[in-house]
From TrEMBL:
This enzyme's EC code(s): 3.2.1.8
Organism: Hypothenemus hampei (Coffee berry borer)
UniProt lineage: Eukaryota, Metazoa, Ecdysozoa, Arthropoda, Hexapoda
SUPFAM superfamilies: (Trans)glycosidases
Protein name: endo-1,4-beta-xylanase
Segments forming domain GH10: 1-301
Length: 302
């Protein structure tokens, strides 16, 4: 049994989970979420298709419910996400040129203004690179080439000057072509005075595949003058033991703790019951809310 909770140990870094408001009525879900974590990220409720399903028709109810839950429980709240190629409603995908640009800016302005004062950090742009480091073909890149990135950060900063503004991606946890491209972009944006304050490393990982240079890679980003965070951690068991999974969770927490400027770790859903990973068991709690060895290992590492 567990003597204390994650958040009781999270003095140097925050420890968060992605949450969904639909599950808050499940009392085991909400009590573990409130007891363990001091940060949350709405799993889907701040994405474009959720907040602006048709033009100018904003639907903030489900996200507001999570913000309220977070505030009642002393949690930081990470906003996720403003500009992404996925979960974009079809009314947006049909736009182009100046109309699309104005739509992007007014979406960012409206959403960031609505949550102003309650969001610790925004994932302003998400998943803009391919594995080879080129820009992903997307509505945004195909219309504006690279300029949408700086424009999105500027619009977010204008709407909430206090929020930390992040770029977020996956498969950037180690040194490779994709993380090199991300590094070069952050360096360029910083040199241009674009208001970027952090880099999010999603970290959808698997046992046996925790990068050995994770901390070194995080540190080269903090050397650019930005914070880093692990934003969407889950670790597939990958046919290995729960103890091996626990060791992998511990390793990732320690990687963050070893880097000045690594501000926190967010798990992308704490229970297998509702995890977006359905092909494996990747969370610290199983689908019956039983703590796996990962829970004690994370606690010990914090
Ligand atoms: C996922 C959610 O967990 C799912 O519920 C949804 O169906 C799809 O999106 N990268 C991200 C997250 O930045 O927003 C994604 O979340 C997982 C991958």
């Amino acid at each position: 049994s567990i003597a204390a909770h994650f958040k009781d140990h999270a003095n140097k870094i925050y420890i968060g989970s992605a949450l969904a408001p639909d599950h808050l009525s499940d009392s085991q879900y909400s009590s573990i979420a409130a007891a363990e974590f001091n940060s949350l990220t709405p799993e889907n409720e701040m994405k474009w298709d959720a907040v602006e399903p048709s033009q100018g028709n904003y639907n903030y109810g489900p996200a507001d419910q999570l913000v309220q839950f977070g505030q009642q429980n002393g949690m930081k709240i990470r906003g996720h996400t403003l500009v992404w190629h996925s979960q974009v409603p079809s009314w947006v995908s049909g736009l182009s040129g100046d109309t699309l640009h104005q739509t992007m800016i007014s979406h960012i302005t409206n959403v960031v203004t609505h949550f102003k004062g309650s969001i610790y950090a925004w994932d302003v742009v998400n998943e803009i690179f391919n594995e080879d480091g080129s820009y992903r073909s997307s509505l945004w890149y195909n219309n504006f080439q690279t300029s949408f990135v700086a424009d999105a950060f500027q619009a977010a900063a204008a709407a909430d000057p206090s929020a930390k503004l992040y770029i977020n991606d996956y498969n950037v946890e180690y040194t490779n072509a994709k993380s090199n491209a991300l590094y070069n972009l952050v360096k360029e944006l910083k040199s241009q005075g674009v208001p970027i304050h952090g880099v999010g490393f999603q970290s959808h990982l698997a046992v046996g595949q925790i990068p050995s240079d994770f901390a070194t890679n995080l540190a080269r980003f903090t050397a650019l003058g930005v914070d880093v965070a692990i934003t969407e951690l889950d670790i597939k068991q990958n046919g290995q033991s729960q103890d091996a999974q626990a060791a992998a969770y511990s390793e990732v927490i320690k990687d963050c703790l070893s880097v000045n400027g690594c501000v926190g770790v967010t798990i992308w859903g704490f229970t297998d019951k509702y995890s977006w990973i359905s092909s494996d068991t990747a969370c610290p709690w199983d689908s019956n809310y039983q703590a796996k060895p990962a829970v004690a290992a994370i606690e010990a590492a914090l």
